[in-house]
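hiii so um. not sure if this is the right channel but i have a protein structure encoded as tokens and i wanna go backwards to a sequence. like what aa goes where. can anyone help
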């Protein structure tokens, strides 16, 4: 990566408050288009609280056009490509993401508020996702079924059809890639609706897909609000599969909207993930992982390690170490690469602050942070201090509900049974972390904790090859890994008698 090019982009953004040449229209059937109703919206830099670009605000008419383009593309040149040819296109998309990576990262930081370091990591992850599914295209095959010598039986994986992707604001490009890459690998077409807070990198990704040689109509992006554009996409009868990442209430709305058309769903919803720390753990490693698990992206991660469930014999020393390091974290505009960037929006900042203020009013111990703040250089933006709420009870609001911010909630246990009960003590089941030197106990806990993914001795371990998704109110279905290809495929079984009985 060219450091001088990245420096120039950062300088332009910091000097002008924006970047030139940002996409501002939908990408439908290979064309950049305004909304049919002429609507426009602003996107705001959370690090300043100021708008830095405008974009098209679509509605049902734009969704209709995008779905029609995706339907037509299913029977066009895209269908004629072999799996290996699709794989080469996806590999080219990965290459182009990397070549445009500096610009994508700066735009992602401006749009979401995350630090440039985090954004660069997200862009690298998006490229790796397309690279992974490029290699999987020609390996996604069916099975033969032994029915005896007089029969031939086999299964075929066929593309499910037009896929809808409702993309969240916390990881705009990463989440887009996580759904779009396996959908394309399976031979589907795509209509994506990015969050209205962070529309730009999804539009840039659609441009990259065209640049790579993807036929027009295969990957379409419509921007706008969830109410106007997202709901129309979910309810569209021409959509065959929906991938949604977001909150539980909105996920319920998506299920209800999809039900009349019996549309298939993958839902990745909220989390209140426990990090279970046993007394025999590597303390230094566990402290670092707990900090990263809750304060990366200002805690705005569905799988954030938002609950520390710790052996009470090491609780005091462990939390003291956390407080010292959390209190020393730097905050500021993401392009300056602080330890932690801004919260995505003012309403979300107010939501986070409300949880902490109510906890303080209940007498909960706020060990550090607990206050709104701003960029120390400019006095602008939406920031919240890294916060630790200590010794919470299982029924506390801050334990049971997803705060989705830089707020760590601490619970203590005396034995493994209590640790499991606390870990499983919410309505969520997305991920869990375990820190111990005893691998027998680690894997016992991994079996007993109800979560879609368990990390042992490294929070956020794994990557694109490891399936990801939740249980209970954290949703259902799996993204990532080869499991995602199954989400975007429909299985056809064929059984034939190949030996006819002799005529009488």
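sure thing!! here u go:
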């Amino acid at each position: 990566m060219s450091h001088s090019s990245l420096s120039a982009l950062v300088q332009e953004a910091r000097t002008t408050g924006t970047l030139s040449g940002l996409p501002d229209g939908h990408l439908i059937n290979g064309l950049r288009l305004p909304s049919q109703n002429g609507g426009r919206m602003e996107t705001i830099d959370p690090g300043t609280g100021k708008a830095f670009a405008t974009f098209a605000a679509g509605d049902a008419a734009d969704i209709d056009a995008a779905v029609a383009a995706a339907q037509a593309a299913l029977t066009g040149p895209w269908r004629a490509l072999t799996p290996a040819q699709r794989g080469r296109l996806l590999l080219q998309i990965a290459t182009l993401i990397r070549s445009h990576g500096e610009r994508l990262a700066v735009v992602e930081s401006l749009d979401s508020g995350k630090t440039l370091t985090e954004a660069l990591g997200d862009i690298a992850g998006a490229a790796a996702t397309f690279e992974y599914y490029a290699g999987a295209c020609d390996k996604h095959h069916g099975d033969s079924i032994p029915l005896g010598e007089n029969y031939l039986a086999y299964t075929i994986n066929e593309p499910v059809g037009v896929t809808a992707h409702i993309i969240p604001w916390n990881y705009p490009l990463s989440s887009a890639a996580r759904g779009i890459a396996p959908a394309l690998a399976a031979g589907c077409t795509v209509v994506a609706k990015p969050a209205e807070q962070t529309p730009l990198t999804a539009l840039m990704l659609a441009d990259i897909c065209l640049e790579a040689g993807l036929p027009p109509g295969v990957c379409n992006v419509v921007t706008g609000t969830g109410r106007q554009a997202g709901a129309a996409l979910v309810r569209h009868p021409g959509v065959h599969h929906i991938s949604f990442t977001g909150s539980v209430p909105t996920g319920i709305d998506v299920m209800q909207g999809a039900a009349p058309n019996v549309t298939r769903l993958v839902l990745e919803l909220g989390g209140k993930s426990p990090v279970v720390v046993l007394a025999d753990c590597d303390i230094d490693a566990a402290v670092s992982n707990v900090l990263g698990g809750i304060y990366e992206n200002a805690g705005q991660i569905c799988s954030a390690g938002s609950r520390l469930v710790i052996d009470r014999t090491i609780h005091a020393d462990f939390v003291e170490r956390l407080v010292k390091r959390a209190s020393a974290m730097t905050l500021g505009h993401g392009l300056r690469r602080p330890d932690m960037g801004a919260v995505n929006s003012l309403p979300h900042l107010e939501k986070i602050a409300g949880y902490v203020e109510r906890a303080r009013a209940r007498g909960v111990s706020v060990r550090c942070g607990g206050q709104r703040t701003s960029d120390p250089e400019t006095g602008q933006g939406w920031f919240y201090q890294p916060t630790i709420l200590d010794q919470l009870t299982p029924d506390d609001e801050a334990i049971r509900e997803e705060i989705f911010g830089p707020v760590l909630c601490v619970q203590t246990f005396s034995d493994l049974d209590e640790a499991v009960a606390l870990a499983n003590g919410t309505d969520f089941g997305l991920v869990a972390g375990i820190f111990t030197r005893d691998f027998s106990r680690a894997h016992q806990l991994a079996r007993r904790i109800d979560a879609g993914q368990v990390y042992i001795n490294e929070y956020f371990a794994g990557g694109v090859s490891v399936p990801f998704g939740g249980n209970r109110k954290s949703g259902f279905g799996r993204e990532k890994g080869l499991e995602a290809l199954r989400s975007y495929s429909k299985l056809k079984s064929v059984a034939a008698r190949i030996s006819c009985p002799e005529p009488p």
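oh and The longest strand covers residues 151-159.
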